[in-house]
Amino acid sequence: MSWLVPLPVILPMLGAGLTLALYGRPRMQKAVSVTTLSAVLAVSATMLVIVSSGPLVAEVGDWPAPIGIVLVVDRLSALMLTVSATVTLCVLLYSQAQGDDKESAPVSIYHPTYLILTAGVSNAFISGDLFNIYVAFEVLLAASYVLLTLGGTRERIRAGSVYVVVAITSSLLFLIAIAAAYAATGTLNLAQMAGRLQEIDPGVRLVIAMLLMLAFGLKAAVFPLSFWLPDSYPTAPAAVTAVFAGLLTKVGVYAMIRTRALLFPDSGGLDDVLMWMALATMIVGILGAVAQDNIKRLLSFTLVSHIGYMVFGIALATSEAWGAAIYYVVHHITVQTALFLVTGLVERYGGSTSLTRLGGLAKAVPLVGILFFIPAMNLAGIPPFSGFVGKLGLIQAGALVGTPIAYVLIGGSVVTSLLTLYAMVKAWNKAFWQPAPRPLPARKVPAGMVMPAVALVVVSLGLTVAAGPLYEYTTRAAHDLAERDQYITAVFPDGVPDDGATDVARPAPASGPDLGQGVRP
Predict the structure, then answer these.
(1) What are the residue ranges in the chain where pLDDT is below 50?
(2) Beta carbons of 299 and 254 less than 8 angstroms apart
(3) How far apart are CA 138 and CA 160, in angstroms?
(4) Which pLDDT value is given to residue 442?
(5) pLDDT digit string (tens) for 264-290?
(6) What is the dihedral of CA 377, 284, 355, 385, to 10 degrees?
(7) Which of 55, 268, 315, 490 has the smallest number of Cβ neighbours within 10 A?
(8) Where are the beta strands (DSSP E) in 281-440?
(9) Beta strands in 60-183 (DSSP E)
(10) Could you give the CA distance from residue 168 to residue 164 in angstroms, rounded to a whole number?
(11) Which H/E stretch holds residue 373?
(12) Which residue in 301, 303, 280, 263 sits closest to 405, CA to CA?
């Protein structure tokens, strides 16, 4: 079944080409986009079941590893693919129903760009090669800049410029890390690097780990590298903001989990630094959220804050913590996306996302009030929602570690959860419960916008109903990460070639460039 592995990348790429050829025919573009993402969801869900018996590996161009690039789907990759496909499909359906809002409604370039974004996300999740992960991030950068600046307003161009500068900085750090890793190990294949990195000088290994964590931390918006996010995301159209907030930062978190577990089983003291960064991310982010009077900016700050929970789990570096962190990633992708989609409905009904201009929405549109309240309480971690399950798992993992900094993080996570509850209740009270300070605009919201939001809220509730099986799945995925052998054996069933070698002075073949890692800069 390894032929399924590249399909989450190939199908969106083919769909992007077809929708670009159908420029000016929006109905056909919509049909192609929906069909493509539905197929990606079906393939991802199928692999989610299959990988229980072991990872799936596909060799690009039929070149065996480490000569060629490999794509690997294990439990973690399959879960991330399935969740991302669910979210991107719901957001696409939502965006197609936005009507005549010229700044928010999809234009002909929207569909191919959106599908390219999906392909980049999928490629990041399944790549078994460090440089190929870099390529996936660059695809994300190109597509996300186009989506962020849809409508061409001054605010969006300014936000897009900041976003690009930050992304390029992160990419440069990533390239430096790649160069250092290749110089030290002579390979960029993750499975082969896992062995070779243990043979090099610990100081060099620590520098490579720090560079990678800085690059991924900037993409994931970990404090103090999160300054760009609250000013960038709220300016985009509602659907774009939803997929950015729910999904794109989690690609950086995924990369942190994968490289920390596979390449650096011994962090060399880096975990303590990550713990302090996690604490700062949680506290600074939620304090920023409490101070906001705009729902989009409030949710953007809570997004930053809750990235701290995931970094907390990564830094604890136990299989229990990683399992809880993976569960929390799945929860947060779904809930955060749902909240931004519902915020788009609030903007349509209320004519604004400013809490000083909203009010009375619970009486005017009770369904939207319910749709906002459920994921808001979920985000705050109110029992028995999935947010509570994920936070409880992280707290238990921290208590098992039992170090002073772990207990400090536990305290910080509880404070953050309480402040999240305060921020969400304040937003709901002002927007839905208090009387409106002005008459609400009489706007009709298409059912096509409401139903995807309903679907994601239902999915978030499903994470609560199926919390037991899902948590067991994420725990198994974490155990696979901790063991490493299953991943390495899947890529190299006959054993890792030259596993202990660290020499990098092997000359390229006279007939052409070194094909051992592809053509690299």
Answers:
(1) 100-105, 499-521
(2) no
(3) 15
(4) 60
(5) 888 767 888 999 999 999 999 999 999
(6) -10
(7) 268
(8) none
(9) 70-73
(10) 6
(11) helix 366-380
(12) 280
